[in-house]
Amino acid sequence: MSEQNQAVHDRLAREYSAGFVTEIESETLPPGLDEDVVRAISAKKDEPSWMTDWRLDAFRRWRTMPEPNWAHVSFDPIDFEAISYFSAPRNKPKSLDEVDPELLRTYDKLGIPLHEREALAGVEKPQIAVDAVFDSVSIATTFKERLRDAGVIFCSIAEAMRDHPELVRKYLGTVVPVSDNFYAALNSAVFSDGSFVYVPKHTRCPMELSTYFRINAENTGQFERTLIVADEGSYVSYLEGCTAPMRDETQLHAAVVELVALEDAEIKYSTVQNWYPGDEQGRGGIYNFVTKRGACVGARSKISWTQVETGSAITWKYPSVVLRGDDSIGEFYSVALTHNAQQADTGTKMLHIGRNTKSTIVSKGISAGRSQNAYRGRVRMNPGATGARNHTRCDSLLIGDACGAHTFPYIESRNPSAVVEHEATTSKVSDDQLFLCAQRGIDPEKAVSMIVNGFCREVFRELPMEFAVEAGKLLEVSLEGAVG
Amino acid sequence: MLQIENLHVRTDGRDILQGVSLTVERGEVHAVMGPNGSGKSTLANVIAGRPGYEVTEGAVRFDGIDLLALEPEERAHHGVFLAFQYPVEIPGVSNMEFLKAALDSRNAAAGEEELSAIDFMRRARGAADRLDLNPEFLKRGVNEGFSGGEKKRNEILQMLLLEPTLAVLDETDSGLDIDALRIVAAGVNAYASPDNAVVLVTHYQRLLDHIVPDYVHVLVDGRIARTGDKALALELESNGYGWLADPAS
Amino acid sequence: MTPAETFAERTHAQRVDYAPWLDREASRRALAEHGLPEPRCEAWRYSNPNRWYQAEPRPSPSAGASPRAVGARLVDFATADDDARTLVRDHLHTAADRAKHPLATVNDIAMRLGLLVHVPVSDTPAEVELGELGGGIERVLVVVDPNASATLVERPATPTHRVVECVLGEGAQLDHVRLQPPAESVEYHLVAARLGAASRYRLAQYSQGASLRRNDLHVRVAGRGGEAEVRCGYRLAAGTHLDTQVGVEHEATDGVSRQTARGVVGDRARAVLNGRIHVAPGAQRSDAALTTKSLLLAATAQLNAKPELTIYADDVRCAHGATVGELDADALFYLRSRGVVEEAARELLIGGFLAEAVADVAGDDARALLGIGR
């Protein structure tokens, strides 16, 4: 280790700042999973019978499915009988004013505003509506009134099932079918809460929407389900953040996100994922096995995924777009950073079905410590995708010689007029770059963070402003002691 | 200001500098010349503290401070600047961001206030103007996709902004056409003042037509074989370096 | 039982009397342990291995010129003397790992023809040409001594199940060209090369399609500073299927590798193209690049490409690029506006596209096979 790198190592010694536990009374189902548990979850939510049947169908399919083993990750088998599938704060608030102050403090500590205070005089700060999901339930959704005035529905999915059953029934499971994959099937059986968004025709959602996920309880899994429907000619930008306490045991998070964009609609979905990554030795952390998919159903619709993945012990996640409508557009911008013993296998699928569909993939992987970081992507041009285009750029940055950076892009073309372009590079933070910065007076800590941020620029540009700043800082913290 | 005494340096298992002594005072311009492999760039890099060079003997003092004991960024904070022979690319990091970070670090080290974004932009644009660089240049990634000439001008731009007390220019003339050379030389001449000093490391005499040195040192086989004034450079131009070689080596 | 299991069992049961001195036990063990690939496994995602099990290679009558060599020794395993047997024992499977190439174990067990090509040091490079060998299940071992150099041109007989292993000593050089004419067969080929320090291996493979033709090209840069180049040029006529899997593994420091592929896929033809760069831990300063370009000529043409990187060292330069598309309409129009008729214009453009994959050695043969002019 050079002296410079030692300095970085010493100065970046920071901790996972979201790792605290909130002491709150919870109601938690005992561990284990069978049809009774599925029924119990459904009953707790007062769900209609069609929903209970839907869950049971998913559960029965799940039992017959094998766990996927193709990802470039390794971990001890998960004991699905040792997980509790439902945990919720005991006092479910009826309105924002009734939220347990302990919970409000939790979100304050995490920097998530669960209040609707108006912008300070003279300071024009964009407002963000938040749906806060704590363990298995949504505890609060802000700015509901203002959104309702615009016709936008933003609530927990449990509420949506009660208040807007026709919408939920019409779209739930249409993008990610119940038996899509092992974890999606599990989610379909046991999902407890999540967010629902409906933006009516020709409506531009008046503010950013966001969901903030927090796993708090021990030995529970989190299985949320998000459904966003953008009707014809509408626009919505949605942000998602996640944290969890530091615990020695691993915890499973298996979410499903479905996006539906009808004609001329646009959905922008941004994630800053900072689940607890485990400690330096790889003890504990979240297994983040998530299925995210959007369907550009209508012509000229657009779905854009942006993700900054710094947390989780293991990430298994491929936000995808099914480009069904002619001239529809899919985008995937990703920064995935792994450090210590983290493993990530993440990327996207772009399925081109309609004519003149376009997709862009920009993936930036940063590997440090002993971590393994893989991009896995699939671009498929179906026979009907005449004039379709894809451009993929996939860059890896290695910090240290004990980590791995991998690229597995699948290109499948069935249409001669479709053009697919893929490029990938691998680089490292070079001693020359560090020395140039040092010679210009910039200390190594700042230099590494500047270089890594520069490497991720194309992706950060896609994030809403506040998120971009936060993401930059998150990278800096996540790289603690990475150079050395 | 800069005292180099009996400096011996090893790199890659070879002894490159074998007893260099050199004193540079404020207001002076020194040229260090010599054939390829004579140790010119090693000298420049050791002053700036580039990793990979081992000082086996000797001392370098800067305003009385032991320069060799400082980290590269600390040397920069004290006013040492190296214009790189091969400027490094940092993809995605804009020139502006990079320069601002450098200036802020220097000001912070000096306990001075951070430059406002507006003042910074004004100064950066001013410097770019002087080097005949399009202001758009500041928005591009550090040296990313720059031509050889642009990279060298970018080094001088950084020098003008950081206002070092000692500027060491390592082969800044290589890869420049005559117009670019004139612009770079004008930048250096404008910067040189009684309060600072310039050390030009160069293989060729042609840069010295534009920047007139007070002293010319000829480095051969890791030692200063000869010191003179501008006339020495002209002599080297016509006779080459061969006649200076140590007959014993 | 699956076809793979049935075939593995039949292979086990085979008692071939060819070159009985060969140790086939390790291959039998590997086959028992690892089995044979099943349909839709990752390595056979886009080609069905059952078709190969069902087609079972058979010896074919020798039809062409027998192998010839200048400056190299050719020895049939059946008639190998002690010296040759030692060379074979020392080098066989040093490039081809039985666990990684299960179909090669079938070749070991059922081999009906084995050929040792031994290239000693000489002032002039050796020249070897392998025409039709006629064995059906064939094994070729090429041993290039340290600092020796050779050119090897293969024109494999069809149908054939051929495994070629090339072992390059320190400072050795081998230019290896494979020409695969159109066929209606179901074939499996493996080329496995192991590069000693500072050696240079250049493989160029030019292929037309077959009913199913699978080429596994596996190059291990095992010695410091080894240089590998793999070129693939192919042109698939109507209804044919070609599956090319190229893997370059950097196991030592300072290695250099370049992979280039150019493919043209016609009506109802299917191309599979997997290019992999693997850098092992510690293989610092590896410099590896891969570019693949494919042209689809018909609405029913299919291409499946997967350019992979698996990198376990940080001080490396690795890049890949892959493109898929059709003939450039502007270029086509430009030529036609100058009076070139459409068919000729297309041929010109296809020729220019494929020419990028053609190396100097046996370049004329390559162009003839790919149907392109100079």
Explain how this protein is built.
The complex is a heterotrimer of chains A (484), B (249) and C (374). Chain A is α/β, with parallel strands linked by helices and 484 residues long. Helix content of chain A is 23%, strand content 35%. Chain A contains 11 helices and 23 strands. Chain B has a 6-stranded mixed beta sheet, with helices on both faces. In chain B, strands 2-1-4-5 form a 4-stranded antiparallel beta sheet, with helices on one face. In chain B, helix 5 packs parallel to helix 6 (178-191). Chain C is built from 8 helices and 18 strands. In chain C, helix 6 (329-337) crosses helix 7 (342-355). The mean pLDDT of chain C is 91. Chains in contact: A-B, A-C. The interface between A and C is large, with 35 and 37 residues. Strand 23 of chain A pairs antiparallel with strand 18 (317-325) of chain C.
Mean pLDDT across residues of chain B? 88
Count of individual beta strands of chain B: 12
Largest sheet descriptor of chain B = 6 strands, mixed
The run of helices and strands of chain C is: HHHEEHHEEEEEEEEEEEEEEEEHHH
Distance between the termini of chain C: 52 Å
Largest interface: A-C, 35 and 37 residues
Biggest sheet strand order of chain C reads 1-4-6-8-10-12-14-16-18
Largest β sheet strand count, sense and barrel closure of chain C: 9 strands, mixed
Can you tell me the residue ranges of chain C where pLDDT is under 50 for at least 5 consecutive residues? none
**Which H/E pattern describes the elements of chain B?**
EEEHEEHEEHHEHEHEEEH
Which strand-content bin applies to the residues of chain C?
35-45%
The number of helical elements of chain B comes to: 7
- Structural class assignment of chain C: alpha/beta
Percent of sequence in beta strands of chain B: 25-35%
Short summary:
The complex is a heterotrimer of chains A (484), B (249) and C (374). Chain B is an alpha/beta fold and 249 residues long.
Question: In terms of topology, how is this protein built?
Answer:
The complex is a heterotrimer of chains A (484), B (249) and C (374).
Chain A: H1 3-11, E1 26-28, H2 35-44, H3 49-64, E2 87-89, H4 101-109, E3 128-134, E4 137-141, H5 144-149, E5 153-156, H6 157-163, H7 165-171, H8 182-190, E6 195-199, E7 208-214, E8 225-230, E9 235-243, E10 250-253, E11 256-261, E12 266-273, E13 285-296, E14 302-309, E15 314-317, E16 320-323, E17 329-338, E18 343-352, E19 358-368, E20 372-381, E21 389-399, E22 404-413, E23 419-428, H9 431-439, H10 444-460, H11 465-478
Parallel strand pairs in A: 3-7, 6-8, 7-9, 8-11, 9-12, 10-13, 11-13, 12-14, 13-15, 13-16, 14-17, 15-18, 16-18, 17-19, 18-20, 19-21, 20-22, 21-23
Antiparallel strand pairs in A: 1-2, 3-4, 5-6
Chain B: E1 2-11, E2 14-24, E3 29-33, H1 40-48, E4 54-62, E5 65-66, H2 72-77, E6 80-83, E7 90-94, H3 95-109, H4 117-130, E8 141-142, H5 148-162, E9 166-170, H6 178-191, E10 197-202, E11 215-220, E12 223-228, H7 230-239
Parallel strand pairs in B: 3-10, 3-11, 6-9, 9-10
Antiparallel strand pairs in B: 1-2, 1-4, 4-5, 7-8, 11-12
Chain C: H1 3-13, H2 25-34, H3 49-55, E1 68-70, E2 73-76, H4 82-91, H5 102-110, E3 113-119, E4 126-130, E5 137-144, E6 149-154, E7 161-168, E8 173-180, E9 186-195, E10 200-208, E11 212-221, E12 227-236, E13 241-250, E14 256-265, E15 270-279, E16 287-296, E17 302-311, E18 317-325, H6 329-337, H7 342-355, H8 363-370
Parallel strand pairs in C: 3-5, 4-6, 5-7, 6-8, 7-9, 8-10, 9-11, 10-12, 11-13, 12-14, 13-15, 14-16, 15-17, 16-18
Antiparallel strand pairs in C: 1-4, 2-3
